[in-house]
Write a structure and sequence with these properties.
Elements (H helix, E strand, L loop, with lengths): L4 H9 L7 H26 L10 H25 L3 H21 L7 H21 L3
């Protein structure tokens, strides 16, 4: 038995469980909603053309994001679970980061959606790397 097997067992026990996926989805949806609102307010302030902001989008944006984000984060967690608890949490955090960033980036109409998806993948991979280093 390797000497570090107890350390690995303790670190795996400290990892977030399936129950922590809903708060993760809520945080990602809230971050996407706030990012969307900030981007729209900046566009309204800085761009010469008027940018309309629907007051209902303040609460509908995060609500619809939670509905869309939660199943995708759960699928990423289940897929990562095949490799163990640490990859499962890393996959879930990476998917949450990708969805939140991509949701906000889609508001920029001048760039191709594939370029925005690649940028979101890059940002999400860095967030997942941080989540792997510090899981709790």
């Amino acid at each position: 038995m390797p000497l570090n097997s107890v350390d690995n067992a303790d670190s795996d026990a400290a990892l977030p469980s399936f129950a922590s996926l809903l708060p993760l989805a809520l945080a990602a949806a809230l971050a996407a909603g706030i990012g969307e609102l900030v981007l729209r307010l900046l566009a309204r302030r800085l761009l010469p053309d008027p940018v309309a902001i629907n007051p209902d989008s303040i609460w509908l944006g995060p609500l619809s994001a939670v509905i869309i984000f939660t199943p995708l984060i759960v699928v990423a967690w289940l897929t990562g679970r095949l490799a163990g608890p640490r990859p499962a949490w890393t996959a879930a955090v990476g998917m949450a980061a990708f969805l939140a960033v991509f949701d906000v980036l889609l508001l920029i109409p001048r760039f191709h959606p594939m370029a925005l998806a690649l940028l979101a993948i890059g940002i999400a991979s860095q967030v997942a790397l941080l989540a792997r280093r510090r899981p709790t």
